[in-house]
Every structure is written in structure tokens, then in C-alpha cells.
Design brief:
single chain, 262 residues, alpha/beta, 6-stranded mixed β-sheet, 4-stranded antiparallel β-sheet, 10 helices, 10 strands, binds adenosine-5'-diphosphate, binds magnesium ion
């Protein structure tokens, strides 16, 4: 069962329930090194749950989760915390500390998890803020930032420990279309420049097709389709084609119609 793992992350037959609701039902998913895998799915389909499982902050009811050769579902707490440093997370609402300036927010993982000096930390913070185009905003407070700027800061913070894998939870949610494209471009550039693997969950199709080198669609607790963007576009699965085109005709809305009329 615990064969060595050549993928950067893997869910193997993972089931996750919250109370009586089965959110993930024997889901298997492999993340390949240096790809940008976009996980598609409706709101509430379990996308954030997948990211929290990969990060090891949530444990499955059944199945196992791997980060490289480590079966994180079996690791003792301290080992897990050490492994987690190799994974960066960009949260949906940026999750910045409102009482701290940008600099402190970005420095946080370095201060908490390393014994680097103030000078070393400042150097890394500057470098990462520069990468995301936010060097001049070091001393601003989060309340002074636009949504797009907060997202950049959050990305800089995810980068300070030089992760091998970055997880993005709805990176463009709530941003205007122009800012959304800017953030998408940034994700693509970073992944190509620093050779970091990205897993992005989203329900926004324009963004998904810009970013993805590969896609997987989650529906009713299962991965119902997986492939390159081109393969996804050609999918014969009516749920996938409806989701990709945003059509009101198809199986997705039929359920809601039934729910409304019954
Ligand atoms: N900690 C939790 N306790 C109870 N239910 C949860 C919890 N986390 C998620 N859920 C439920 O699991 C489902 C999937 O959630 P989530 O992964 O956040 O979906 P998505 O990110 O695709 O919108 C939702 O129905 C949500 O209400
Ligand atoms: Mg979510």
C-alpha cells in the first residue's frame, strides 16, 4: 500500500465526511512536479477541503494523503509541521493580520519557523515583495491595500520559505477581471521562474483556462474528469461541458430545479 511516491502530492482513495455529509468519496488525485493543476468545482463541492487535506490541517476519514514520499496521514505531529514548511498556502481571503504592516505579515513564517536574523529576514521579505510587485508597500497596513494587493502580499508570504508546492484557494475570487488576469499572470510567471508546483482551486473558468497545465473536476464527491485544458473542452461528460460553458441547460441545474419544485 505505501509504495514510494514519485508525485509531489497525492490523494489516494480519500473519503472525507462532515457529520452525515460525504464531501469527498474515494477521491484519488495526483499532483505532478512543476505542473499547475486547477481543481474545478461548484461552490461547496469540497475544493478547499482537498487543499486542507494536502496541507495536513485536516485528516481524511478513509484513504491516505502523500506529500512526496511522506504519507502525511501517518506522520507524527512534529514531523508533519516540518513537512508543511515545504508547502505554501494562499488563502481565499488573503488572511493577513490586520494589525501588522505588510512587512511583518510576509516575515511571519520566517519569524515563527526559522532562526534567521532580522537582517536576513528583511532581505528575503524585500526579495519576495519585489517578485510580486509590492516592494513599495512594505510599510502599509492591510486596510490600506486593494484586494489585488492583499493577494500579492499573501503570495509573497507563501513564498518566503521557498516551498516546493503552493496551494491557491480561489486566488481571483472577488477581484475585478483586470486584476484577476494580473494575478493569474503572476502565478504563471512565478511557477515558471521558480519551478514551483501549483495547485489552484477555482470556479472561475477564464482564470482556470489561463492558469492550468492540467485540470480536474470535482462533482458530487468524485473527480469526474481530468486532463489538459484541451481535453477538458472536449469532454463528453455533460456536467463538465455545462460547467465549462456556464450553461443553464444541463444536469447541474436540473437538480436544483428538482429541489425547488419538490
Ligand atoms: N469544518 C467543517 N465542518 C463541517 N462542514 C464542513 C467543514 N468544512 C467544510 N464543510 C462542508 O463541506 C462542503 C465542502 O466544503 P469546501 O471544501 O469548503 O467547498 P468549496 O471549497 O468547494 O466551496 C461544504 O458543504 C461545507 O459546508
Ligand atoms: Mg472553498
Amino acid at each position: 500500500m505505501s509504495t514510494a511516491n514519485s508525485y509531489i502530492a497525492e490523494l489516494r482513495e480519500v473519503t472525507k465526511r462532515f457529520e452525515e455529509k460525504t464531501v469527498l468519496d474515494h477521491v484519488s488525485l495526483k499532483v505532478r512536479s512543476q505542473e499547475r493543476l486547477v481543481i474545478l468545482g461548484q461552490s461547496g463541492s469540497g475544493k478547499s477541503t482537498i487543499l486542507r487535506l494536502i496541507l495536513g490541517i485536516l485528516m481524511p476519514d478513509e484513504g491516505s494523503v502523500f506529500f512526496k514520499q511522506f504519507e502525511i496521514t501517518r506522520l507524527p505531529r512534529r514531523k508533519l509541521q516540518r513537512i508543511r514548511r515545504h508547502i505554501g498556502m494562499v488563502y481565499q481571503y488573503s488572511a493577513l493580520l490586520s494589525s501588522r504592516p505588510v512587512r511583518d505579515n510576509v516575515a511571519l513564517p520566517l519569524e515563527e519557523l526559522t532562526d534567521k536574523s532580522r537582517e536576513e529576514i528583511d532581505k528575503i521579505v524585500d526579495e519576495k515583495l519585489e517578485l510580486v510587485g509590492m516592494k513599495d508597500s512594505k510599510n502599509l497596513m492591510p486596510s490600506e491595500l486593494s484586494g489585488g494587493m492583499k493577494k500579492r502580499v499573501s503570495l509573497a508570504r507563501a513564498l518566503v520559505l521557498e516551498p516546493e508546492l503552493i496551494l491557491f484557494d480561489e486566488p481571483v475570487a472577488g477581484l475585478d477581471p483586470v486584476m484577476a488576469s494580473v494575478i493569474d499572470e503572476l502565478v504563471i510567471n512565478l511557477s515558471e521562474k521558480s519551478k514551483v508546483t501549483c495547485v489552484v482551486v477555482t470556479h472561475e473558468m477564464d482564470s482556470a483556462f489561463r492558469i492550468a497545465t492540467r485540470m480536474a473536476m470535482l462533482y458530487h464527491g468524485k473527480i469526474i474528469e481530468e486532463g489538459t485544458p484541451e481535453e477538458m473542452k472536449k469532454s463528453r461528460n455533460p456536467v463538465v461541458s455545462q460547467f465549462l460553458t456556464g450553461s443553464t441547460e444541463g444536469p447541474i441545474l436540473e437538480e436544483t430545479k428538482d429541489a425547488i419544485t419538490t
